[in-house]
Structure formats: structure tokens, C-alpha cells
Design a protein that fits this description.
The protein is of the alpha/beta class and 422 residues long. It is built from 14 helices and 17 strands.
């Protein structure tokens, strides 16, 4: 089953409103085995809407149109869809009556301009709107199911969950498509793809039993596994493929689906009964921000020191001024002393640090923008790790914070600093 999503609105085309409806519809359709193949954005123009509908029913099995069902003259979706389907609009007295009742329940009388929302194409089935006033509708055009629903996200979601998804599930009860996402960090997309293509037999095409998509983010890659079939087949396939990928990639995979790097690190710290303190320079508190995003983090996170200046590095963290003079603030040696210092200050089992050049200025040939060192202090030992990140200031900071968390994660998994290669 292939779907086309048509979102209507001048504000979407001009960028004044972000097209979040298309993202939500795409994700939800996949959950019931309907694959979104096209997303079309059209203006509030009757002819453009009509043309988009005619084109969509020629190539898709399901069409969902959202937006442009308001009461004002610039809302032309009803007219455009009706014209595209070759039907006339008719006033539905039952819909008009329910709309008036809803308005009375809220207080004021319904303005007459809202009457136009009770017009839907002849032969269409109305879809109730439990959030707003404008009803949606469903009709068949050239054998294709066409759903038309309002654009406000809460109204769109309500109709999607109440009517559209149950209808689609009832049509194909034994064929669904589900996804599982594995989160990775530390390897580039090309490296992961090469290893998996060599060691993971099976189809990588979306129209086969299962598929694999690579979704790169800042410093990490998500692997989205899709599977089609009956519910039992899908669950077995997802479990099996995920297990094989984990076996191949090992600790490069840090989590599944809704897990975050910071939640995984927090779970490991909690399980092992360990505490951590953080010393940050270039990340400006971002590492501690991520750690404290996790509920219950007070059980393992003690404190953070944002030592942005050399004076704070020496006076608060105890970094040796001679180390700063000899190696500079952005160095493995300083990162290690920062990790030692914050750990001594807090009395925790682990000290974690980051120092680097976020840019855009301040870099040299020897120490370019994006150069970052992460320090880790545990027991009687401490190690430093060198990274070089591309991108602008914010991206370098984000990648640096995640790299620091990954260093901590890998230590917690292995229980030793020996051979640690983040």
C-alpha cells in the first residue's frame, strides 16, 4: 500500500509554518503497513488542490489531504478536492446541526461563516472532529481512499487516531509494517554500511521482507530496521535482524528506539552504583545538561564545574599552571587534570572532562577548530582522548558532549580503561 500526503497552506510553502503534519502522518501510516511515497505541499488555491488530488489518485492507494478546511474564504480545500474528484459539494444538515450544538455548548452562537464547514463532496462519509468544529470526510475516488482532515495538529491527530488508522488497519489486518531503531555512535555511516553489507545477508530493499535505512545525526547514526508481514512475522524479523546487527557492531550500538545516550549512561551508573562529576570547558555545561535530563540522575550525578577560563581551571579544579603553559588549555594533559580535579572536589568515583576549540575562531594549524579532548579519571588512573569534529560552534559542542558521554559509557561497559577506543 502506497500513500500520498497532501498538505495545504500558503504558510507551509513560504516557511512561516513548519510542516509537522506530514512527519506525523508519515510515521503513523508506516505503523499500519502503509508506505508514504509522496508528500505534496500546495497553496490555498482551488485549482492547485484539484490538480494535486487528480495526480495522487493515479499513483497512490491512499491519499490524505490536510489543511484548508477553515471557515474563511481562503480555505479552499473542500472545493479543490471536490473538483479533483469530479463531485459537487452538498450541505449536510446533520453536520451543521452538530456544529451548532458544539458552539452553543462553548457559549457563543456559531457565526454564519462556519456554515461552509458543513459542506462535503456528495457521497463522502463524514469524519467527526472531537477537538475542533470542522468535520473531515472520506471518499473513494478511482478506487482510491481519499481522506480530508483539518490542518491544526491536534485536530489532525484526533481524526487520524480515531478514524483513519482504524479504517486502514481493518482493510489489511494481516499485513503490517513496523520499525525498530538501533542507535550507534563512534563509527561513520559509510563504515557501518560497509561492515553490514559484508556480514549481514538479506535484502536491503524497502519492498522486501525487511529493510535497513541509515539515518545519520550529529556524531551518530541510527539504523532503522523495517519489517512487513503478519504481526508475529514482523516481531520475529525485527528481533532477529536487530540481534544480528548488535552481534556485528558490538558496543557501537548504544541503544534501541526511545533510549538516549544519556539514559543508557545513567542506567549503567545506577546499576553499578557509581557516581560521576563533570568538568567542562568548551561544552559550557552541555554534558551535565544531558546527564540531568534523565529522571533520577541525582542518584549518580554529583556536580559539574564549567571551567571556561584558565583561572578557574587552576583555582577551582587544581590544574597545574605549568601544564597550561607547556601544553595549552586544549590538550590531553589538561583534560586529564580537569578530570582528576573535579573528582577530588566532588569525592565521586568517576571524573569526566572536556576541553576544546568550538570555533568559529581561535584555531591554529596545530590546534584547529573542532579539536577536543575528553578526560576520564577512575581509581588511580586517568586517560585522555582526542577528537576532531567538523561543523559550526553549536554542532562541535553537541558532538563533544556526546563523545564524552560515550567515553564514559564504554568504560562502564568494559570496567577498565585498558584498550578503551571511543
Amino acid at each position: 500500500m502506497r500513500a500520498e500526503i497532501i498538505t495545504v497552506g500558503d504558510e507551509l510553502l513560504t516557511g512561516f509554518t513548519v510542516n509537522t503534519n506530514a512527519a506525523v502522518l508519515g510515521q503513523k501510516l508506516l505503523e499500519v503497513g502503509v508506505g508514504p511515497c509522496w508528500v505534496t505541499v500546495v497553496s490555498d488555491n482551488e485549482e492547485e488542490i484539484s490538480s494535486a488530488v487528480r495526480r495522487s489518485v493515479e499513483r497512490a492507494d491512499v491519499v490524505i489531504v490536510t489543511g484548508g478546511l477553515g471557515p474563511t474564504a481562503d480555505d479552499r480545500t473542500r472545493e479543490g478536492v471536490a473538483a479533483g474528484a469530479g463531485r459537487k459539494l452538498e450541505l449536510r444538515s446533520d453536520l451543521l446541526g452538530r456544529m451548532r450544538e458544539r458552539w452553543r455548548a462553548r457559549g457563543p452562537e456559531m457565526p454564519e461563516s462556519n456554515t461552509r464547514q458543513a459542506y462535503i463532496p456528495q457521497g463522502a462519509a463524514a469524519i467527526e472532529n472531537r477537538v475542533g468544529t470542522a468535520p473531515g470526510f472520506r471518499m473513494t475516488c478511482a478506487g482510491v481512499d481519499v481522506f480530508v482532515i483539518p490542518g491544526p495538529p491536534a485536530e489532525m491527530r484526533g481524526m487520524l487516531e480515531d478514524a483513519i488508522l482504524p479504517y486502514l488497519e481493518s482493510r489489511f489486518p494481516d499485513r503490517i509494517r513496523k520499525y525498530r531503531t538501533l542507535h550507534t555512535i563512534g563509527w561513520p555511516e559509510s563504515g557501518i554500511a560497509q561492515v553490514l553489507s559484508e556480514r549481514l545477508p538479506g535484502s536491503l530493499q524497502a519492498d522486501e521482507q525487511w529493510s535497513l535505512a541509515y539515518l545519520p545525526h550529529a556524531g551518530s547514526v541510527d539504523l532503522r530496521i523495517g519489517a512487513s508481514g503478519s504481526p508475529d512475522q514482523v516481531n520475529r524479523t525485527l528481533r532477529g535482524v536487530a540481534r544480528r546487527i548488535r552481534r556485528i557492531l558490538g558496543p557501537v550500538v548504544y541503544g534501541t528506539d526511545g533510549q538516549t545516550l544519556e539514559s543508557v549512561v545513567g542506567s549503567l551508573l545506577r546499576t553499578k552504583g557509581l557516581s560521576v562529576a563533570v568538568a567542562e570547558s568548551c561544552t559550557g555545561g552541555l554534558i551535565s545538561h544531558l546527564l540531568t535530563n534523565v529522571p533520577g540522575s541525582s542518584g549518580y550525578f554529583d556536580r559539574a564545574v564549567v571551567a571556561y577560563s584558565n583561572r578557574t581551571k587552576t583555582s577551582v579544579l587544581g590544574v597545574n599552571p605549568g601544564t597550561l603553559r607547556a601544553h595549552g588549555a586544549v590538550s590531553e594533559e589538561v583534560a586529564v587534570e580537569m578530570a582528576w580535579g573535579v573528582r577530588r572536589l566532588a569525592g565521586t568515583r568517576i571524573g569526566l572532562s572536556a576541553t576544546g576549540i568550538a570555533g568559529p575562531g581561535g584555531g591554529t594549524k596545530a590546534k584547529p577548530v573542532g579539536l577536543v579532548y575528553v578526560g576520564l579519571s577512575v581509581g588511580r588512573r586517568a586517560c585522555g582522548f582526542r577528537f576532531r569534529f567538523p561543523g559550526g560552534r553549536e554542532l562541535v559542542k553537541r558532538r563533544s558532549a556526546r563523545a564524552a558521554l560515550n567515553v564514559l559509557r564504554l568504560y562502564l561497559l568494559g570496567g577498565t580503561l585498558d584498550g578503551l577506543e571511543p
